[in-house]
Amino acid sequence: MNETDRNTSVDKSNFCQNCGACCAYSVNWPRFSVESDEVLSQIPEQFINERQSGMRCTDDRCLALQGVVGIATACRVYAWRPEVCRTCIPGDVECTMARRKFGLPAT
After folding, report:
1. Domain-embedded: residue 89
2. Residue 40, by phi and psi: left (phi above 0), alpha (psi -120 to 50) or beta?
3. Residue-wise pLDDT tens digits, 33-88
């Protein structure tokens, strides 16, 4: 790693908890796909959208997201979050796109 990379790299140890951009990027992202009825029944109803197809959002932000994007965030339903949330990988294309929307550096 050269000096420039060292100075611009992002600490990934608490990356998602310091970000939350993917959870506030688009109303279409927190959707259900392969979740079982058992898993879906664990998500409190107030967090499920009217069509029962994904998480309820206010504008583009998932209602289960707590905190301030880019500062400190947490998921109220982390243990039961949809598969699309579980497959988010810090630094992948989707992560980078969401971070850009909020003016956060790419990883």
Report:
1. yes
2. alpha
3. 999 999 899 999 999 999 999 999 999 999 999 999 999 999 999 999 999 998 88
Does the residue 54 lie in any domain? yes
Helices (H), the chain: 3-8, 37-42, 83-86, 93-101
CB 33 within 8 A of CB 40: no
User: What is the span of the domain harbouring residue 56?
Assistant: 13-101
Domain assignment of residue 79, yes or no: yes
C-alpha distances in angstroms, 80 versus 23, 84, 93?
15, 11, 24
For 86, residues 6+ apart whose C-beta sits below 8 A from its C-beta are none
Interatomic CA distance for residues 38 and 42, integer angstroms: 7
User: Total structural domains in the chain?
Assistant: 1
**Main-chain phi, psi angles of 94, to 5 degrees:** -65, -40
Look at residues 69, 67, 63 and name the one whose alpha carbon lies nearest to residue 82. 63
Measured from the Cβ of residue 102, the count of other Cβ atoms closer than 10 Å reads 13
